[in-house]
Amino acid sequence: MPAKWWSPVVNNLALLQGANTHVGLLVTSIDLGRRPTAVTVSWADGSAATLRIDADADCAAIRQRLAQIGPGLPRPELDNRVFWVPDDESASPYLVHAWVLQELGRSAEYQSVADMWGERLELLYVSGDSTQVEAVLHLTSSGYAVRVPIEISPPGAKYIDMAYALAKTACTADDLPVGEPHEGIPTFLGPAY
User: Fold this and answer.
1) Staple partner for 91: which of 2, 49, 113, 154, CB 3.0–4.6 Å?
2) What CA–CA distance (Å, rounded) separates 82 from 71?
3) What predicted TM-score, i.e. pTM, was given to this entire model?
4) Is 90 exceeded by the pLDDT of residue 90?
5) What number is the average pLDDT over the span 150-161?
6) Phi/psi zone of residue 184: left (φ > 0), alpha (ψ -120 to 50 degrees), beta?
7) Are 61 and 98 in a shared domain?
8) Which of 57, 81, 104 is the last residue of a domain?
9) Residues 123 and 88 in one domain
10) Does 132 lie in the same domain as 98?
11) Region 92-106 average pLDDT
12) Which residue pairs from 131-136 have beta carbons closer than 8 angstroms and sit at least 24 positions apart in sequence?
């Protein structure tokens, strides 16, 4: 199944953050409901910036943009061909956060689960810090969203296949409590992951 347009954006941000934990690079929000995607990042020194990223921007282009606005030139991204799960109990929360972002960016995994319910599913919004992330999944076919909090803590292996679990939660949201709408979209509150 082909990746959704937003999958490379989220994955590229995850790979760049994972390679730049030494400067505390943290992707604090990704608004995929806007095009180009609105991304807010922060660094350990307290600086922060919001930038717009086109769907076709590769890691090199995003890295160049970050270098223009952040403290120092970021390192190149992690090698996506290598399974880099931060499975050490002492792993940096920034590295685990990056791994969670990469897992959230696995659009093909969402859709294969959503297909079982005849749904179309999109990752709409991600926000958080080094301790917790909140993901908003939009079921475009049903017209509602599900907001799911995700605690950030090592080991990273517990987040493998997270996209499947979140997609199942989103597709079976009938019994979930109703929350505040996200950008006017009716939104259910999913259980913490």
Assistant:
1) 154
2) 27
3) 0.93
4) no
5) 91
6) left
7) yes
8) 104
9) no
10) no
11) 92
12) 131/93, 133/97, 133/100, 133/101, 133/104, 135/104, 135/166, 136/182, 136/187
Q: Which residues pair with 150 in a beta bridge?
A: 133
In a domain, 43, yes or no: yes
Statement to judge: residues 114 and 31 lie in one domain:
no
Domains identified in the chain, total number: 2
Beta bridge partners of 53: 37
Instruction: Give the structural domain span for 44.
Output: 7-104
1 within domain boundaries: no
Q: According to the model, what pLDDT value does residue 73 have?
A: 66
Residues 87 and 100 in one domain: yes
Burial (CB count <10 Å: 0-12, 13-18, 19+), residue 158: middle
Instruction: Please count the CA atoms within 13 angstroms of the CA of 106 that sit on its side-chain side.
Output: 20
Q: What is the pLDDT of residue 2?
A: 59
Over residues 15-60, the pLDDT tens digits come to 999 989 888 999 999 999 989 999 999 999 999 999 999 999 999 9
According to the model, what pLDDT value does residue 106 have?
85
Last residue of a domain, one of 104, 137, 152: 104
State how far the Cα of 30 lies from the Cα of 128, in Å rounded to an integer. Answer: 10
Tell whether 168 and 179 lie within a shared domain: yes
Residues 116 and 94 in one domain: no
User: pLDDT-derived band of residue 115, with 50, 70 and 90 as boundaries?
Assistant: very high
